[in-house]
Amino acid sequence: REKISSYTANMALTGFTAPKLLWVRKHEPENFAKIKKIMLPKDYIAY
Q: DSSP letter string over the chain?
């Protein structure tokens, strides 16, 4: 957590996308390997 904070000057809260992706990478590597792109809902709507 401190490492992320030192890079971004923000705490990595659980609702953020990056911590969720890190969790999937650690606990569900087969699903993480299938990821091609990441989009937030607002970006998907604009797409």
A: -HHHHHHHSS---TTSHHHHHHHHHHH-HHHHHT------HHHHHH-
Q: Which amino acid is at 6?
A: S
Amino acid at 47: Y
Give the pLDDT means over successive 10-residue stretches in the chain (47 positions). 70 78 95 94 91
| Of 21, 41, 43, the residue nearest 33 (C-alpha) | 21
Q: Specify the pLDDT at position 17.
A: 87
- 24 and 31 Cβ atoms separated by less than 8 Å: yes
